[in-house]
């Protein structure tokens, strides 16, 4: 006998504080499918009939233990980009790995009116954590090479944590901003900028440049990893000149490689944006239109429901669930109820020390 099924999403950092594993176990056994936005380390502490991991990573390898936990505790694994899928499969994940892209909330990031920009310096904006992966050093060096000595162009660098000492604090046309800000202040920063620069070495997805694009800013982003997903629609792609060993600091062991963005090309792209500022601005506005029509969280919610239905269908013939604590499922023809509760947007600011935004 068929019946309506239920899907629940579990954001393990919904209160913006991870706490201690084991002290924050989640019991969602009352739902038919639980989709957990978390690093795989949390999977053993989630009790569900069918558990779907929703995760990502930023280098070509995976942290120790991730593959084993996904294969043991999850019936499927969702990732936000085709590049992530390739990484997870090549590193040994055996459960189905499927792509459900992330999006931008149009109620938080929309096409902003930047008014008349004459008489003020052309402003590049970079935003992220101060670790090497985010490419702040590449952005700073490229800006210095392209515009040193110029007072008509400036760079604003927003560090969400304490900035490194080498972050250009003595440069008159480099502004350093520090702190975690709410969306209102982030929008103000984006509204006061002319171009968003994000030469990251590795992203599983990369929200900040996409949020910038949604406001109409022209964006320069590395054509690698999750950033390469749909990049032709929302950013100037910054090619990769090679690969280097991923040096994370948070994760122990070998986690593979990440990209080294082409700094020479970045210099050229930044100069082009200044010299052709009206053309760059028009491209940014077209990107915002595309984001609003094609890349919101609604598609993420729809993708989660679609993949959860696949999980129900795969077990509809009575196949035994592979996750601990799950009984035999024999409800043929299970379908998910598409209700207003079946929405998705990460409540926190990302995975620990990886700033998935």
Using DSSP, what is the number of strands? 17
Main β-sheet, in a few words?
6 strands, parallel
CATH topology descriptor of the largest domain: Rossmann fold
The CATH class of the largest domain turns out to be Alpha Beta
Number of domains: 2
Q: How many individual helices? A: 9
Q: In CATH terms, what is the architecture of the largest domain?
A: 3-Layer(aba) Sandwich
As a percent range, the share of strand residues is 15-25%
CATH H-level homologous superfamily name of the largest domain? Glycogen Phosphorylase B
State the share of residues found in helices, binned by percent. 25-40%
Trace the largest sheet across and list its strands: 11-10-9-12-13-14
Termini gap: 42 Å
Approximate shape = globular
Could you list the spans in which at least 5 consecutive residues all have pLDDT below 50? 322-344, 347-357
Q: Which class of secondary structure composition applies to the elements?
A: alpha/beta
Mean of all residue-level pLDDT scores: 85
Rg: 21 Å
Order of helical and strand elements: EEEEEEHEHEEHEEHEHEHEEEHHHE
């Amino acid at each position: 006998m068929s019946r309506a099924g239920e899907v629940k999403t579990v954001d393990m950092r919904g209160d913006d504080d991870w706490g201690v594993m084991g002290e924050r176990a989640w019991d969602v056994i009352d739902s038919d499918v639980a989709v957990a936005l978390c690093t795989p380390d949390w999977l053993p502490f989630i009790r569900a009939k069918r558990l779907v991991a929703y995760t990502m990573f930023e280098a070509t390898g995976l942290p120790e233990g991730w593959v084993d936990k996904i294969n043991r505790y999850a019936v499927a694994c969702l990732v936000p980009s085709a590049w992530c899928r390739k990484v997870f499969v090549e590193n040994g994940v055996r459960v189905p790995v499927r792509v459900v892209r992330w999006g931008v909330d149009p109620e938080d990031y929309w096409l902003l009116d930047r008014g008349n920009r004459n008489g003020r310096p052309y402003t590049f904006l970079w935003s992220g954590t101060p670790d090497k992966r985010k490419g702040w050093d590449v952005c700073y060096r490229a800006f210095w090479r392209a515009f040193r000595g110029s007072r008509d162009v400036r760079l604003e660098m927003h560090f969400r944590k304490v900035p490194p000492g080498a972050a250009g604090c003595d440069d008159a046309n480099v502004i350093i901003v520090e702190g975690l800000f709410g969306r209102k202040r982030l929008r103000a920063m984006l509204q006061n900028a002319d171009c968003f620069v994000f030469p990251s070495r590795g992203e599983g997805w990369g929200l900040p440049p996409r949020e910038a694009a949604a406001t109409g800013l022209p964006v320069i982003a590395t054509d690698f990893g999750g950033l390469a997903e749909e990049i032709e629609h929302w950013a100037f792609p910054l090619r990769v000149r090679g690969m280097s060993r991923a040096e994370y600091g948070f994760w122990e062991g070998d986690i593979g490689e990440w990209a080294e963005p082409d700094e020479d090309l970045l210099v050229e792209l930044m100069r082009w944006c200044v010299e052709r500022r009206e053309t760059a601005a028009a491209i940014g506005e077209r990107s915002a239109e595309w984001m609003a029509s094609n890349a919101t969280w609604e598609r993420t919610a729809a993708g989660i429901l679609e993949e959860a239905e696949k999980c129900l269908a795969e077990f509809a013939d009575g196949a035994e669930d592979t996750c601990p604590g799950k009984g035999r499922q024999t409800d043929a023809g299970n379908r998910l109820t598409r209700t207003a509760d079946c929405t998705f947007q990460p409540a926190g600011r990302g995975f620990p020390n990886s700033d998935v935004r």
